[in-house]
TrEMBL record:
The keyword Metal-binding applies. One of its GO terms (molecular function) is metal ion binding. Residues 120-317 form the ATP-grasp domain. Its EC number is 6.3.4.14. This is Biotin carboxylase. Keywords: ATP-binding, Biotin, Fatty acid biosynthesis, Fatty acid metabolism, Ligase, Lipid biosynthesis, Lipid metabolism, Magnesium, Metal-binding, Nucleotide-binding.
Length: 447
């Protein structure tokens, strides 16, 4: 087992990792930017090293400074959390070159899944259902139009290096294709430095379902069932739940088997998720693989009684996974509490928290790094807390979640709490009858 782990991240995930390390008897090193000197992960770690100014590229994305911090403190492993460098193949390889264990996927594994066109080809070869579309990247508008005509509209153009909905365009008819092509390439090139596009059949009325997997260094892979992440705006998740209201035991088994098959195809090591779109007929298609821990991992932990961070660390230290697959014993839901104004297009709302009260009671978990008097910097992601609720049924979870949200007090800034309270009362949401487009028709006027 490792003696000291450096956490190359910030906020609630850094604090989450510190807690598990402390339970395991492993020392921790926090790294922080000057904007985060008063953050809880800095206070709770055994050691802390400042790695630069507020800008991410000069601090949390600064590989040289992070490696230097690991060497100075004698850390023998680095946990990247999610975001920042967690899916950076170069960082994973540099850690290996310096004899520091990267708690996550290898560079080769990250590269195999990081490019979406390559990932699709890998999964197709492994026998995992893939959305019909181009084999590899498109060479030209003419090739794209020809393939779209064969598949039938609507289709979707996607940036191979994309994320967060950038570099994506839905095309409903041929005369829209060329403009969508140009717009998607321009946006992708500007955002990612890569304007490569591929084409897929557009899945109508989709649900976004991900399967949590974990693999070890010996070729063993287990899955921990699904999470439904369909409540999202601009392709960014706001609410996640498990089990999904639409997944039957038979479909869960098929999707779980497909996810394990895909992970084994790249000899996957660590925690990750295989993401699928499920259509209204119950057909599922591979979308992408995230080679890291996910924001929403706590709901899986709550329904399986399984510490995913601890398992990540054990796998990285060379211990095997059980090979057993897990199914939910309870129901759980997570609401992302963001420092945003939901009544104003979810505009970021950084600033000082003047008053804070966390909800409590049976089945309530809060993962957060904020406190009363804490100033939320404008430099990073706006998520400030995750409210996780578990119960014996989905109805009980929704009722408990609404009660917890009503108890949750954050003053001094705008948050997504009012939106979540309203969502818990929405008939469509309560029925489980929704798709990834659900919020396009949601009324935000009174928030």
């Amino acid at each position: 087992m490792f003696k000291k782990i450096l956490i190359a991240n910030r906020g609630e995930i850094a604090l989450r990792i510190i807690r598990t390390c402390r339970e395991m008897g492993v020392k921790t090193v926090a790294v922080y930017s000057t904007a985060d000197r008063d953050s809880l992960h800095v206070r709770f770690a055994d050691e802390a090293v400042c790695i630069g100014p507020p800008a991410s590229r000069l601090s949390y994305l600064n590989i040289q400074n992070i490696i230097s911090a690991a060497e100075v403190t004698g850390a023998d492993a680095i946990h990247p959390g999610y975001g920042f460098l967690s899916e950076n193949a170069e960082f994973s390889q540099i850690c290996a070159d310096y004899g520091i264990k990267f708690i996550g996927a290898t560079a080769a594994q990250i590269n195999s899944m990081g490019d979406k066109a390559t990932a699709k080809a890998t999964m197709r070869t492994a026998g995992v259902p893939v959305i019909p579309g181009s084999v590899g990247l498109l060479d030209s508008v003419a090739q794209g139009k020809e393939l779209a005509a064969e598949m039938g509209y609507p289709v979707i153009l996607k940036a191979t290096a994309g994320g967060g909905g950038r570099g994506m365009r839905i095309v409903t008819k041929e005369d829209e294709f060329e403009k969508a092509w140009n717009d998607a390439r321009q946006e992708s090139g500007a955002a990612f430095g890569n304007d490569g596009l591929y084409l897929e059949k557009f899945v109508e009325e989709p649900r976004h379902i991900e399967i949590q997997i974990i693999g070890d260094q010996f070729g063993n892979v287990s899955h921990l069932s699904e999470r439904d992440c369909s409540i999202q705006r601009r392709h960014q998740k706001l609410v996640e739940e498990t089990p999904s209201p639409i997944i039957t035991p038979e479909l869960r088994e098929k999707m779980g088997d497909a996810a394990v098959k895909g992970a084994r195809a790249i000899a996957y090591e660590g925690a990750g998720t295989v993401e699928f779109l499920v259509d209204k007929h119950g057909n599922f298609f591979f979308m992408e693989m995230n080679t890291r821990i996910q924001v929403e991992h706590p709901i899986t932990e709550e329904v399986t009684d399984f510490d995913l961070i601890k398992e990540q660390i054990k796998v990285a230290a060379g211990e095997p996974v059980s090979g057993k697959n897990y199914t939910p014993k309870l129901f759980a839901m997570e609401c992302r509490i963001n420092a945003e104004d939901p009544g104003n297009g979810f505009r970021p709302s950084p600033g000082k928290i003047t008053n804070l009260h966390f909800p409590g009671g049976h089945g309530i978990r809060i993962d957060s790094h904020v406190y009363s008097g804490y100033t939320i910097p404008p430099n990073y992601d706006s998520m400030i807390a995750k409210l996780i609720v578990s119960g014996q049924s989905r109805e009980e979870v929704i009722t408990r979640m609404k009660r917890a949200l009503q108890e949750f007090v954050i003053e001094g800034i705008k948050t997504t709490i009012p939106f979540h309270i309203k969502l818990m009362d929405d008939a469509g949401f309560r029925s489980g009858n929704f798709t990834t487009k659900f919020l396009e028709g949601f009324d935000f006027s009174d928030l």
